[in-house]
Amino acid sequence: MQKKVLGRGLESLIPTLAANKASTDETIIAIPLDKIKSNRFQPRNKFDEVKLQELAHSIEKHGLAQPILVTASIIPGEYEIIAGERRYRASKLAGNKVIKAIVKQSADEKQRFDLALVENLQREDLDYIEEARAFKRLIEEFGHTHEQISEIVGKERSVITNALRLLSLPENVQLLITEGKISPGHGRILAGIEDKNRIRTIVERILNENLSVRAVEKIISGLKSKKKTNGQKKQEIELTNLKEEIQRKLGTKVNISGTSKKGRIEIYYYSLEDLERITKEFKFSC
């Protein structure tokens, strides 16, 4: 099965990049590493030191296979990375003094973040929480909609929405997802629980009992059913008490049916005189 390409990809986000591939002498230049700064909008929070060392060894032995992408900084002669943070760091570890780079003209902040996000997703470098935080930044800082993000990264809109739900979890639970101790599937289910104490209890069970996502779904479904049953009982008691109070005040049989939001009251009368008496009770009460 052919692997699906992620979203619009780097080349579609940078149309000039594909067009200029043939004229590499004009687009690729060697830049001193000390003249390059990391991307301020890098969505990745951590880098695996072992993998960086492996990449550094590869670069040292075989050279850099693909240039990084940079844009000119506000400081003359300096550049900021758009895509290629790992290659930049690994090149420094390899002891290189310069790095091959493609210089993109006039990349605004939104485009820098878009490109950095797409590259990380294409290389599967982001964990689930980093990915969700990147989506959140696109929404809050750059005004993207869920639909626009789905187009950029090539994922269904529901995937974006579900990823963002993980950020509603307590920080310690987000860390467990980052560390791979619980799955994002567990996290999405837990995100539907408002009670943080209950979340903590279920997380402990997931860790101690190695519960599957399906098992957690059953636990939460049982809790909701129990909560609903207890709520129904409480509601029935309240309606019964109200019915008895109205019957005492009106001196006749009364039925109440419905819920706490809406329902129906039936008041019985057994003669015209009885109806007049009940009507007077209402008038008196008013």
Automatic annotation (TrEMBL):
Q: Which SUPFAM superfamilies match?
A: KorB DNA-binding domain-like, ParB/Sulfiredoxin
Identify the domain of life.
Bacteria
SMART domains assigned to the protein according to its UniProt record, in alphabetical order:
ParB
A single GO CC term for this protein reads: chromosome
Which terms are listed as keywords in the entry? Chromosome partition, DNA-binding
Q: Which GO terms describe its biological process?
A: chromosome segregation
Instruction: Please report the stretch or stretches of sequence annotated as the ParB-like N-terminal domain.
Output: 29-121
GO MF terms held by the record: DNA binding
Q: Which InterPro entries match?
A: Chromosome_partition/occlusion (IPR050336), HTH_ParB/Spo0J (IPR041468), ParB/RepB/Spo0J (IPR004437), ParB/Sulfiredoxin_sf (IPR036086), ParB_dimer_C (IPR057240), ParB_N (IPR003115)
* Family membership noted in the UniProt record: Belongs to the ParB family.
Q: What is this protein called?
A: ParB-like N-terminal domain-containing protein
Organism source for this protein? Endomicrobium trichonymphae
